[in-house]
């Protein structure tokens, strides 16, 4: 029994409400005392009687971008107020960084402030918009997300985040909700990526997706191995032969426009675990083998977000699910598989299986006469050697698609870089005269060679390939609003690109 005396002597009292406000500071000027955001200034004068600014001046140098100060009992409503640094007030689009640095700073500031309050077990957290409510919501929701599913915590704690709008602006609230939707989608991708492979086999993945998407208004068709065999998807099925887990092909459908309007087709590589097959990966390279279904997770999360936001577009999502491990029936170096259109691919290296999973889905996509096709996979580790964990590589036959995706990435802070589809790489994969192509080709440049394989199966369709291997895992503080672990990228960029495409289509129709 807790007595009144013991409660009064307690050194810990849970703060019920917290507030996150921002301050601008010139980081190159050590004597700059900073300037509160407009919302922070109004809060200080209306509710704190100037006390917040006084305490801030007494607390030492202004918090820089990614830093914070915590103050207690400033006003009767919020027991805790966190001031987070936004960096320079002059931040904007930076051409050399190919990023809107202002929005990225807002995400960082919101995440840092919310984490501080979550660390204090603050139940209700209000976050100002920092001038862009969508980015603030993204940073806050991404920053506090943690996967507690496999921890035996007695009381797993999560803060509830809200927009603090001192003026009650409707537009900010709408943008805040959009930001939460996008962050929720990326967190769903992270959750799926982080699930151990023994708990997310192809059949388990399919069941999870049915449960997740059917409640969101997305239709899910689960197609089994016999269906794929009847359509001669031998390339995709060859990857699954080593596992006792049967291959499953998911077809997602969302109709937000007229039923006969041509859809956008999204394809996600769904290798629920990649051991490399008979050409086995080293143990250190299998650490994140469960993340080889990142493409599938991105497509699932994108479809849910598009449906939740009720975007006026038709979407077809194609997800070939399989498990790539060693087994009695596993494909072998030297095996030849035939794709749906009759082309033959020789397996030079079973560890170069990712294009084999995607090519039959690219061919199947033609049945829907798509506006354009985007596929997402985790194909080449080479990307990390060049870009670290910073960049998704892009290959496309359409300058327009690239420009749309590039503009979306500037808005979301997910870096992209376009790599070439030169004919020299096609020649490398077709160098052997006894087959149409090999999955490894000759010479160096596997990243570009794998994209060249995919490009052989799209013909005249506008197509874009995202290789997300480099951004599968967040580590080393690339974006401080993402804690180390599975990153969920580039989910928000894909959602943003699709949303902008619906606007552009309406303009074109007018």
What order do the helices and strands come in, and which of them pair?
Layout: H1 4-8, E1 17-24, E2 35-36, H2 38-46, H3 51-58, E3 68-72, E4 80-85, E5 93-94, E6 99-100, H4 101-119, E7 124-127, H5 133-144, E8 160-163, H6 170-194, H7 202-213, E9 219-223, H8 225-230, H9 234-240, E10 248-255, E11 264-268, E12 270-274, H10 294-308, E13 314-324, E14 336-338, E15 344-346, H11 354-365, E16 372-377, H12 382-387, E17 391-396, H13 399-412, E18 415-418, H14 423-429, E19 437-438, H15 446-455, E20 463-467, E21 473-474, E22 485-486, H16 491-509
Parallel strand pairs: 1-4, 1-7, 7-8, 11-13, 11-16, 12-13, 15-19, 16-20, 17-18
Antiparallel strand pairs: 1-2, 3-4, 5-6, 9-10, 10-13, 14-15, 17-20, 21-22
Helix pairs in contact: 4-5, 5-6, 6-10, 9-11, 10-16, 11-15, 13-16, 14-15
Note down, in words, how this protein is organized.
The structure is a single chain. A hairpin with a 7-residue loop joins strand 3 (68-72) and strand 4. Helix content is 36%, strand content 20%. Helix 10 (294-308) packs across helix 16. Strands 9, 10, 11, 12, 13, 16, 17, 18 and 20 form a nine-stranded mixed beta sheet that branches. The chain has 510 residues and is α/β, with parallel strands linked by helices. Residues 1-7 have low confidence and may be disordered. The protein is elongated and about 80 Å long. The protein is built from 16 helices and 22 strands.
* Spatial separation of the terminal alpha carbons: 71 Å
Shape: elongated
Mean pLDDT: 92
Estimated helix fraction: 25-40%
Would you identify the regions where 5 or more consecutive residues have pLDDT less than 50? 1-7
């Amino acid at each position: 029994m807790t007595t009144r005396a013991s409660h009064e002597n307690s050194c810990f009292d849970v703060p019920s409400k917290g507030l996150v406000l921002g301050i601008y500071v010139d980081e190159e000027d050590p004597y700059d005392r900073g300037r509160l955001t407009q919302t922070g200034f109004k809060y200080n004068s209306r509710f704190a009687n100037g006390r917040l600014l006084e305490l801030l001046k007494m607390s030492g140098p202004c918090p820089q971008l990614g830093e914070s100060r915590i103050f207690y009992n400033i006003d009767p409503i919020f027991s805790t107020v966190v001031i987070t640094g936004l960096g320079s007030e002059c931040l904007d689009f930076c051409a050399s960084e190919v990023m809107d640095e202002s929005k990225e700073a807002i995400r960082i500031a919101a995440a840092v402030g919310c984490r501080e309050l979550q660390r204090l077990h603050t139940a209700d957290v209000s976050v100002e918009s920092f001038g862009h409510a969508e980015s603030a919501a993204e940073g806050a929701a991404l920053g506090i997300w943690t996967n507690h599913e496999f921890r035996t915590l007695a009381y797993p704690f999560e803060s509830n985040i809200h927009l603090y709008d001192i003026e009650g602006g409707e537009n900010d609230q709408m943008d805040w909700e959009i930001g939460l939707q996008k962050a929720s989608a990326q967190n769903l991708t992270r959750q799926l990526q982080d699930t151990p492979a023994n708990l997310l086999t192809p059949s388990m993945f399919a069941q999870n997706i049915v449960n997740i998407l059917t409640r969101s208004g997305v239709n899910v068709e689960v197609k089994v191995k016999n269906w794929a065999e009847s359509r001669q998807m031998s390339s995709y099925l060859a990857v699954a032969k080593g596992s006792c887990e049967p291959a499953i092909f998911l077809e997602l459908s969302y109709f937000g426009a007229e039923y006969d309007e041509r859809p956008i087709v999204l394809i996600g590589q769904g290798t629920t675990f990649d051991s490399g097959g008979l050409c086995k990966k080293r143990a250190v390279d299998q650490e994140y083998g469960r993340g080889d279904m990142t493409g599938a997770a991105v497509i699932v999360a994108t479809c849910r977000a598009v449906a939740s936001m009720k975007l006026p577009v038709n979407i077809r999502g194609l997800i070939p699910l399989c498990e790539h491990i060693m087994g009695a029936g596993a494909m072998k170096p030297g095996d030849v598989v035939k794709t749906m259109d009759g082309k033959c691919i020789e397996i030079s290296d079973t560890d170069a299986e990712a294009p084999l999973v995607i090519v039959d889905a690219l061919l199947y996509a033609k049945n829907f006469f798509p506006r354009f096709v985007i596929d997402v996979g985790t194909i080449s580790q080479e990307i990390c050697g060049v870009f670290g964990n910073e960049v998704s590589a892009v290959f496309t036959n359409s300058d327009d698609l690239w420009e749309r995706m590039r503009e979306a990435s500037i808005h979301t802070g997910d870096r992209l870089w376009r790599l070439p589809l030169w004919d020299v790489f096609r020649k490398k994969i077709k160098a052997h005269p006894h087959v149409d192509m090999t999955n490894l080709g000759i010479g160096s440049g596997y990243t570009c060679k794998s994209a060249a394989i995919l490009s052989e199966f799209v013909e005249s369709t506008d197509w874009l390939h995202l290789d997300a291997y480099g951004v599968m895992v967040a580590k080393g503080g690339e974006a401080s609003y993402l804690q180390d672990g599975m990153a969920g990228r580039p989910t928000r960029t894909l959602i943003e690109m699709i949303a902008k495409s619906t606007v552009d289509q309406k303009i074109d129709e007018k």
